[in-house]
């Protein structure tokens, strides 16, 4: 048995060394002045530095220019993803009691929220913005102000360089819309804008070319309440008095580029933010307390999992996930963690762990996303 485990370990090591060599050969990073680590070939140094936990990268960048260039390279991101050693952090977009927007980051191992500096000034007072993660970047899209019409501006944050930058504008100015990432593309869907084109339009963003492409479809309506992506399909839910039925949902199949209406128990009972995690889909129902629901994919209906203690979290809440761990984030960034491997459905109050809220904070979470590097 021990010899078999030893052989398996050697096999895994050989595969990892092959991947390292392949990535080094096609890497867009090259040490220009000297080796990354004196005395070691760069492919071995590549392997060593790639395994340093993400929380220490900001320190290592001061060692040399070569290290800084490597730690901010696309090669590092791709390699850590390919061998399964990426660290996942959570980013939350919040609005404070003075109506200013802030962005916070959570490194789960430290169990503490920290404000992310450098949010573009243009975004700090906007309403109706949305954010989404594509690859190694967090995108902040659109929005409007009390005296400002909807904008088509898009900003992105790169955690490796720790910088915000403006990227290509959307084709259409929009606010109060949704954004989803699917099959390597970023989607901006529906919402309100300075022209009626925003009501039934949607657009896709290609990060490699930095180009947006606009589309029209009558299945896309205003008043989008929530969005959700799973099984290569984007679902959007509309709630409004000008729509019949009052709760209306549509689905976009990314594999064949088609929209269709959806009228089933899943969409009729979809009352809050939802996320896919560990092969299952979970939803936070905030009607009459905070309840965790799970989608029965066969019957296409939501099944009660359990309740969250009102002493641990305040509404409104958003949800995200890292692997099989759910993070339900409420007002003031109160955070409840739920291990989906230990869930017993329908047993009343859920067993959870929690992360303390920000001191003296009443911030409302607009959106929260997980970014893995």
From TrEMBL:
<keyword id="KW-0880">Kelch repeat</keyword>
<dbReference type="Pfam" id="PF00646">
    <property type="entry name" value="F-box"/>
</dbReference>
<keyword id="KW-0677">Repeat</keyword>
<dbReference type="InterPro" id="IPR006652">
    <property type="entry name" value="Kelch_1"/>
</dbReference>
<dbReference type="InterPro" id="IPR036047">
    <property type="entry name" value="F-box-like_dom_sf"/>
</dbReference>
<dbReference type="InterPro" id="IPR015915">
    <property type="entry name" value="Kelch-typ_b-propeller"/>
</dbReference>
<feature type="domain" description="F-box">
    <location>
        <begin position="40"/>
        <end position="80"/>
    </location>
</feature>
<dbReference type="InterPro" id="IPR001810">
    <property type="entry name" value="F-box_dom"/>
</dbReference>
<protein>
    <recommendedName>
        <fullName>F-box domain-containing protein</fullName>
    </recommendedName>
</protein>
<dbReference type="Pfam" id="PF24681">
    <property type="entry name" value="Kelch_KLHDC2_KLHL20_DRC7"/>
</dbReference>
């Amino acid at each position: 048995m021990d010899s078999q485990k030893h052989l398996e370990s050697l096999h895994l090591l050989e595969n990892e060394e092959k991947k390292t060599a392949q990535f080094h050969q096609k890497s867009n990073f090259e040490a220009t002045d000297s080796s990354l680590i004196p005395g070691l070939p760069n492919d071995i140094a590549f392997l060593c530095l790639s395994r340093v936990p993400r929380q220490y990268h900001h320190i290592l960048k001061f060692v040399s220019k070569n290290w800084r260039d490597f730690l901010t390279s696309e090669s590092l991101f791709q390699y850590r993803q390919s061998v399964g050693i990426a660290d996942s952090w959570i980013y939350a977009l919040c609005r404070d009691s003075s109506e200013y927007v802030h962005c916070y980051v959570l490194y789960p191992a430290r169990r503490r929220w920290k404000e992310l500096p450098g949010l573009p000034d243009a975004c700090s007072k906007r309403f109706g913005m949305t954010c989404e993660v594509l690859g190694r970047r967090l995108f902040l899209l659109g929005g409007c102000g009390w005296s400002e019409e909807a904008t088509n501006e898009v900003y992105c944050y790169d955690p490796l360089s720790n910088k915000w930058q403006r990227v290509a504008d959307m084709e259409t100015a929009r606010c109060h819309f949704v954004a989803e990432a699917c099959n390597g593309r970023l989607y901006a869907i529906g919402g309100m804008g300075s022209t009626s084109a925003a009501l039934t339009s949607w657009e896709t963003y290609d990060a490699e070319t930095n180009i947006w492409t606009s589309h029209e479809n009558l299945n896309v309506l205003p008043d989008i309440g929530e969005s959700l992506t799973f099984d290569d399909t984007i679902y959007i839910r509309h709630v409004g008095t000008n729509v019949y039925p009052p709760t209306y949902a549509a689905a976009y199949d990314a594999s064949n580029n088609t929209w269709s209406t959806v009228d089933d128990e899943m969409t009729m009972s979809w009352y809050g933010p939802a996320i896919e995690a560990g092969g299952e889909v979970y939803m936070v129902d905030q009607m009459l307390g905070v309840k965790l629901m799970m989608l029965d994919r066969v019957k296409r209906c939501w099944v009660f999992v359990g309740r969250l203690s009102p002493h641990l979290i305040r509404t409104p809440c958003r949800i995200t996930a890292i692997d099989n761990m759910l993070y339900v984030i409420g007002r003031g960034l109160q955070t409840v963690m739920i291990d989906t491997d230990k869930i017993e459905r329908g047993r009343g109050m859920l067993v959870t762990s929690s992360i303390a809220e920000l001191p003296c904070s009443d911030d409302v979470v607009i959106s929260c996303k997980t970014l893995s590097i």
